[in-house]
Amino acid sequence: MTAAARRVLLAAGLPLVLVGLWWLASADSQSFYLPPLRDILAAFADTWLGGRLADDVLPSVARLLAGLAVAGVAGVGLGVLIGSSRRLRATLEPVLEFLRAIPPPVLVPIFILVAGIGTTMKVLVIASGCLWPILLNTVEGVRARDEVLEDTCRVYGIRGPARLRHLVLRSASPQIVTGMRQALAIGIILMVISEMFAASSGLGFTIVQFQRGFAIPEMWSGILLLGLLGVVLSWLFGMVERRVLSWYHGLRQAQRELS
Amino acid sequence: MRPGRRQRWWLGASGLLGFLLLLELVPRAGLVPDRYLPPTSRIAGALADELGEPAFWRALGDTLQGWAVGLALAVGAGVGLGLLVGSVPALRAATSSTIEFLRPIPSVALIPLAVLLFGTDLRSKLLLVVYASFWQVLVQVVAGVRDVDPVAMDTAHSYGLGRWGRIRHVVWPTALPYAMTGFRLAAAVALILAITAELIIGSPGLGREIAVAQTSGAVPAMYALVVVAGLLGVAVNLAARALERRLLAWHPSARREVGA
After folding, report:
1. Distances, alpha carbon A249 to alpha carbons A76, A93, A253, A257, in Å
2. Is B105–A226 a contact, with Cβ atoms under 8 angstroms apart?
3. What ipTM score was computed for the predicted complex, to two decimals?
4. Pick the CATH number of A53-245 from 3.30.70.360, 3.10.580.10, 1.10.3720.10, 3.90.79.10
5. What is the pLDDT of residues A114-152, one digit of tens each?
6. What's the predicted TM-score (pTM) here?
7. Where in the sequence is the domain holding B137, given as residue range(s)?
8. B171 in Cβ contact with B145 (< 8 Å)
9. Considering its fold, how many domains does chain B have in total?
10. Residue A86 to residue B94, Cβ atoms within 8 A
11. How many CB atoms lie within 10 A of CB B192?
12. Which of B8, B14, B109 sits opposite A226 (nearest CB)?
């Protein structure tokens, strides 16, 4: 067996076994709440591959991305500002500690109050939950930039936007990406629960409707879809990260080999 | 110029004061209608009212109970399985794709299932809390066990340490810093999910009180409860960090921090 085939077998083996076990164990299940996997998959095709994908799923994902984008711009902007000044950082630290510690789901009722239950509310909720990991990681990244590079920039007279782009943002980018990854996980949670709490469309709303209507196979198919969405988004994020941070991973590799 | 310790304290306190003052003045000046954002003083008043209510303390207790029980289950399972998976290379290779697949599944996807199976029971909350925080611990412990120094392991072998001795004296000290990082993340995530379960499913606790306050239009009370949730989050973060410092006082990373 070649090394590649071994790797594929190792990676796919356990998942296949688990799905197979689920299929077999549930094949003639009479339990109302645990329908056979066969029925769930059939419901999956019927429910989501029709119009629902465009009507419910894509708008949800679009809101998630919009919220993340808002949080990204605000978080990096404020983070660079706060990270660059020791005084500002010391002043804002307790406030930021507190705001970060508020569990983001409690923002849902607040934003319903302010913005109703429309798209604005959901994007605001997602953005305000995703802001803190990005902001705090950016602050850390900006603060921990290399002193030698900093002095080099000064000696070469690199100032203003060029300094921001080549020194500050560049050296903070691994931390910013870490923050974005945490934000993505929180964003998915907020996307779902803002729709579960109060909405008239969207993925979370539809799944709760199925559950309330006791459409059990459809509900399970929704759970599967949410799971797949989480996995696909984190996989896409990993791909983008490897591209954007290829210089950083290469640098770390080189450092490890040297030491 | 590097602000000193004392100066930092003053700056932080003034920042906090400024924040509270801002939230007092913005609604008073009419920039934001006060039915959306009541001034700080009214939120503080509502908070004082809440503190006198037995129902509030019951809700706080329910939230803390769900958080603590869920976190304990997740940490126990995560550490146990993590040690097992991490120390058997074949197992690690076979499970890594499954872990990578299951981990990003948002635990809120389980909400409908939890409602059907357990209703608003404590078990609903526990299902969400455990699922979300288990992966944080597991992944960290597996990474920690992987990091064990092979030379130390061989030395332990040569000195005739048994399986338990090796786990106790070689594997565990190496994995502990990783496990504590996992614990810190899991403690924060567990609180988020406990409150989410209360908010969405309606399990008893602070989250449900917030939802009730919102639907009944008790805006200052809602903000007061949100403040409590935030303070709870701060307390959880501080406690987890203090525990980490205490348990890792011997570790070079903690000692370096003190020295610097």
Report:
1. 21, 30, 6, 12
2. yes
3. 0.81
4. 1.10.3720.10
5. 888 888 888 999 999 999 999 999 998 888 888 888 888
6. 0.85
7. 38-259
8. yes
9. 1
10. no
11. 26
12. B109
